[in-house]
Design goal:
Length: about 210
C-alpha cells in the first residue's frame, strides 16, 4: 500500500492532515531537536502532517463522525515555546523513564540485581561504578522519535515501532512505520517477528 493510499484511509478514519513538511522545515526541526527523521517517516510527513480529531457526540446529521484518539501526534511545525518544550520532553521520555526505573530499583536489592543483569551491568561493583556503567549504556542507547502518543520508532530507516508507556512494559506495534499505521488505525493484526526485530540496545530492555 502506498503512503498516499494509507493517508487517504487514515483521513476516512477521522484523522485530519495538514500540508506535509517541506525540506526547509525538516532541516529546521532536526536542528532544533537534534534528531534525524528516518527516511520512511520523512516520506510520510512530507505527504501530510497528521493531527488527532475528536468525535462529535451525537454526530451532526450529514457530517462525518470523527473518532476520538486519546493520544496526540507530534506537531512538528509549531515552533511556539510551549510546543517546543513539549516535543523535547516527548523525545526524551523513553530514556527518562529508563533512568527513573534504574533509580527506583536501587531501593530493592533483588530488583536492582535483576535490572543490572538484564542490561549487562556489573552488580558486584560499587554503586558509583554501576552508575557510570548505566550512563554509558544510556548514552549508547538508540535514540527514539515519537510517532503517536507513547508509540516511538528508532531514528533509523525501517525501524520497528515500540510502545513505551513504561520501560518495564514495552511492546512492538509494527514491523515498520507502514505496518504500524495499518495496525494502529486500519484494523490490521499486529504480527511482528520479535526475534528478528532490529532493536539495537532496546532489545535488552524489551526482552527482560
Amino acid at each position: 500500500m502506498e503512503i498516499k493510499e494509507i493517508i487517504d484511509k487514515l483521513k476516512n478514519k477521522g484523522i485530519v492532515f495538514a500540508n506535509g513538511l517541506t525540506e526547509e522545515e525538516f532541516a529546521s526541526i532536526e536542528s532544533l531537536y537534534n534528531i534525524k527523521f528516518p527516511k520512511d517517516l520523512k516520506k510520510f510527513l512530507s505527504v501530510g502532517l497528521p493531527f488527532a480529531e475528536y468525535t462529535s457526540y451525537p454526530p451532526i446529521v450529514g457530517e462525518k463522525e470523527y473518532y476520538h484518539y486519546a493520544f496526540p501526534f507530534p506537531v512538528w511545525n509549531d515552533f511556539s515555546e510551549e510546543n517546543i518544550k513539549k516535543n523535547k520532553e516527548w523525545i526524551a521520555e523513553p530514556k527518562r523513564l529508563l533512568r527513573e526505573e534504574f533509580e527506583n530499583a536501587k531501593n530493592n536489592k533483588k530488583e536492582f540485581w535483576a535490572f543490572c543483569n538484564d542490561l549487562g551491568l556489573d552488580f558486584e561493583k560499587k554503586i558509583e561504578e554501576i552508575d557510570k556503567e548505566f550512563d554509558s549504556f544510556e548514552n549508547n542507547l538508540e535514540n527514539t522519535i515519537p510517532i503517536f502518543g507513547h508509540r516511538y520508532m528508532l531514528q533509523k530507516d525501517n525501524s520497528p515501532i515500540l510502545s513505551i508507556p513504561q520501560t518495564d512494559d514495552i511492546a512492538l506495534y509494527g514491523k515498520d512505520l507502514q505496518d504500524y499505521l495499518e495496525c494502529e488505525f486500519l484494523g490490521k493484526k499486529v504480527d511482528v517477528d520479535w526475534s528478528n526485530a532490529k532493536l539495537g540496545n532496546w532489545h535488552n530492555i524489551l526482552f527482560r
